[in-house]
């Protein structure tokens, strides 16, 4: 089983779009996938057409101990399950402030779920912050994918993101690795996008071999700007159900193919095997 946290503390970089469409694409390839919506805005849930009444059980109730993950998850498509979020998650950081072991709540809940319901992939859509919800995701995951918009300001934010993963690796989760960077809203005809891609590759290649991102890759399939990707959430559908022939669907299908290819590398004993 591969557990992947999709994270970036900056909003508007394609994090939820990547989480939803990666999960949906893997499910279309026959993989059993559970998507965890950890964002109080519940955008991943809305993207898949799940809008819950105020009293419905969500992943917030898993954090508070009122419900197990098995009790709150729901089937939203063939081979695809969702643990939905709600605005109540915004209060979790305050409510859990004095809770011992608060950073490990999600890991423990996920371990209990996997005993009774095995999955091939668990995808975690993290909130655009580095608070307790994101730390829980990093403590529960073994891999991190970072969606990144290819401009220089995004590179400055990346350093803080990597520092956080290094801290979690040292203190909470020795198996955590940054295994991939997804370039989103990519404009193929600009020199800036190519320059940023080159700078990223140079940075990864020159990293300390012991750093959790040293074996990370920049996925070859860039997610191009595409209006259909922006429209799909309002219809409660993944891009594969909303516009399966558009460039956005083509790009995410390519990304899914690369993620599946990583499974073969893991099986052959590549360095990523430590993160899966």
Please describe what this structure looks like.
The protein is an alpha/beta fold and 276 residues long. It has one domain: Rossmann fold (3-Layer(aba) Sandwich), CATH 3.40.50. Helix content is 43%, strand content 16%. The chain is built from 12 helices and 9 strands. The chain has helices at 15-28, 43-47, 59-63, 69-72, 92-95, 105-116, 132-140, 152-171, 191-205, 227-231, 239-242, 247-267; strands at residues 2-6, 33-37, 74-77, 80-83, 121-125, 143-148, 177-186, 217-218, 223-224. Strands 1, 2, 3, 4, 5, 6, 7, 8 and 9 form a 9-stranded mixed beta sheet that branches. β7, α9 and β8 (217-218) form a beta-alpha-beta unit. α1 packs across α12. It is globular, with a radius of gyration of 17 Å. The model has no long low-confidence stretch (mean pLDDT 90).
CATH architecture: 3-Layer(aba) Sandwich
> Helix and strand succession?
EHEHHHEEHHEHEHEHEEHHH
Largest sheet: 9 strands, mixed
Return the CATH topology. Rossmann fold
Cα distance spanning the termini: 7 Å
What is the structural class?
Answer: alpha/beta
State which percent range the strand residues make up: 15-25%
The CATH class assignment is Alpha Beta
Catalogue the unreliable spans: none
Superfamily (CATH H level) name: P-loop containing nucleotide triphosphate hydrolases
Please, how many helices? 12
Task: List how many beta strands DSSP finds.
Answer: 9
């Amino acid at each position: 089983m591969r557990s992947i946290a999709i994270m970036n503390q900056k909003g508007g970089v394609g994090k939820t779009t990547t989480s939803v469409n990666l999960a949906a694409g893997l499910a279309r390839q026959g993989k059993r996938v559970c998507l965890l919506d950890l964002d109080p805005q519940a955008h991943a849930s809305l993207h898949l057409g799940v809008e819950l009444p105020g009293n419905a059980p969500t992943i917030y109730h898993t954090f508070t101990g009122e419900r197990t993950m098995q009790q709150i998850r729901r089937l939203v498509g063939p081979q695809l399950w969702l643990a939905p979020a709600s605005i109540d998650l915004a209060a979790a950081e305050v409510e859990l402030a004095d809770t011992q072991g608060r950073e490990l709540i999600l890991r423990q809940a996920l371990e209990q779920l996997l005993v009774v319901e095995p999955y091939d992939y668990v995808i975690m859509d993290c909130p655009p912050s580095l608070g307790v919800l994101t730390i829980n995701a990093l403590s529960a995951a073994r891999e991190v994918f970072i969606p990144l918009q290819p401009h220089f300001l995004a590179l400055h934010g990346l350093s803080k993101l990597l520092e956080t993963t290094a801290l979690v690796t040292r203190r909470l989760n020795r198996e955590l690795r940054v295994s991939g960077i997804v370039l989103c809203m990519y404009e193929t005809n600009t020199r800036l996008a190519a320059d940023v891609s080159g700078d990223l590759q140079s940075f990864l290649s020159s990293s300390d071999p012991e750093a959790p991102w040293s074996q990370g890759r920049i996925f070859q399939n860039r997610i191009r700007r595409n209006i259909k990707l922006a429209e799909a959430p309002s219809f409660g559908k993944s891009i594969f159900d909303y516009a399966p022939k558009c460039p956005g669907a083509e790009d995410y299908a390519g990304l899914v193919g690369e993620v599946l290819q990583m499974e073969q590398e893991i099986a052959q004993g590549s360095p990523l095997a430590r993160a899966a």
